[in-house]
Amino acid sequence: MRCAQGHTYDIAKQGYVSLLGGRSGSLKSDTADMVSARLRVHDAGVLDPVVNAVAQAAAALVPGMQVHTDAPVIIDLGAGPGHYLSAALGGVEHSRRVGVDLSKYCARALTRRIPGAGAVVADVWRDLPFVDDCADVVLSVFAPRNVDETARILRRGGRWIIVTPQPDHLGELIEPMSMLSVAADKSDAVSAAVGERFDIVEHTVIRDRRDVPASTIADLVSMGPTAFHRDRDEIERAAHAFAPGSSTTPVTVAVTVTVCQASVDR
Predict the structure, then answer these.
(1) pLDDT tens digits, residue range 94-124?
(2) pTM for this one?
(3) 87: enclosing H helix or E strand
């Protein structure tokens, strides 16, 4: 790939391109083990309510939109291994899609999951590698939210689908598994952050409970930031102590889906 200033970027044999600058290259990103854990959690269906909510939100938005090209452009910022981008594509025909993540392991997994998708390794907190007004839909699912840059790349009338955890999301695991808790005012903080540049169309709370075994508990912990501080063996021991033998324990999946529209006068 070559930019207008003549810089060149090699496309990896796995199908992604890395646009990380020097200041972002030292940031912590999902490891191969963390991505594998996330894939197993999705395979187990624990996050199906979230996947389905993203699919429904995208399917409801795009058909009625006046897209600015012959195919809607969907960009997932903090795409992970591509489950939510794939879900958004389910109800949208002939779309063009790009996933951006800080982790090359996520980018590799995304290209395997969504053949033909663009996969970019980049820091979503910094300038995004897209031209102005290029996207019809942007996703930020359990991911950082760069309000100014999202406002720049999202065309007027385009939609931003944001998914954030509720305070009780995975609440049964937070204390026994030493996980980070979710701030009680998370949804309010999101609304305040995006409100100046976007019109909030709707908030939807999704809540579900799933019975999961120790192996899935360990994966739920290992796919997130706790894995940067505890090794897998330690996490597995804690999970088996919490759900011994073949027993299962209920785990709450609870998120807020916020749909925003790019303001005409932003």
Answers:
(1) 788 999 999 999 999 999 999 889 999 999 9
(2) 0.92
(3) helix 83-89
